[in-house]
Structures are given as structure tokens and as C-alpha cells.
Design brief:
By secondary structure, the protein is mostly beta strands. Helices cover about 0% and strands about 40% of the residues. Strand 6 and strand 7 form a beta hairpin. The protein starts with 8 loop residues before the first strand and ends with a strand. About 15% of the residues are buried.
């Protein structure tokens, strides 16, 4: 299934949280899991429509790895895969 977000929305595949700490400790699956804050953009909308009718193009693109606000995304599940839908305004940085 192919998703095409509308306006200035993006679809993000979240990165899995690390199961091992930097010091080598394995974290149990029962620990409380927060929403991810990093992911890769898999689809972008065309951009925001301004009051004068022009389209403001997106500053991110498919394949960009991004940081976003923790609780800004809506979760969706398609074919047993979890994705996040968020507005471009909720993206705080592109990871280079």
C-alpha cells in the first residue's frame, strides 16, 4: 500500500529504540517504552497552501532522517508496520 500525505504532512518510519545501553546493558522488553523521537521520512505531502493560494514546498524529503517533537505524531499501523504521521512544523531537525 502506498501512502500519499496531504498538505505539509509527512509519514515517518520510527527508529526502533535501542535495546542495549552504551555500557552494554541489555534492556528488558518490559521496560516502559516512550514514543520514538527519531525516524526516516517515507512519504511527503506537496506542501502548505498559503492564503494567496501558492504552495510552500517542503523543506524535508523522502529518505531524510529527522528529529521531531515527542508527542506530536499520530500513530498508524498498516500491514503490521507502525508509522507516524506528523506535520512538517513538528520536525525540529534533519539528522545529517
Amino acid at each position: 500500500m502506498k501512502l500519499q500525505p496531504l498538505f505539509n504532512n509527512v509519514i515517518v518510519k520510527p527508529f526502533k529504540p535501542e535495546e542495549v545501553t552504551k555500557s552494554g546493558l541489555v534492556l528488558p522488553e518490559t521496560r516502559e517504552k516512550d514514543r520514538p523521537e527519531k525516524g526516516e521520512i517515507i512519504a511527503c505531502g506537496p506542501g502548505k497552501i498559503l492564503d494567496n493560494g501558492q504552495v510552500l514546498t517542503m523543506s524535508v524529503k523522502v529518505g531524510d532522517q529527522v528529529l521531531f517533537k515527542k508527542y506530536s505524531a499520530d500513530e498508524i499501523k498498516i500491514d503490521d508496520e507502525e508509522y507516524l504521521v506528523l506535520s512538517e512544523n513538528d520536525i525540529v531537525a534533519i539528522i545529517n
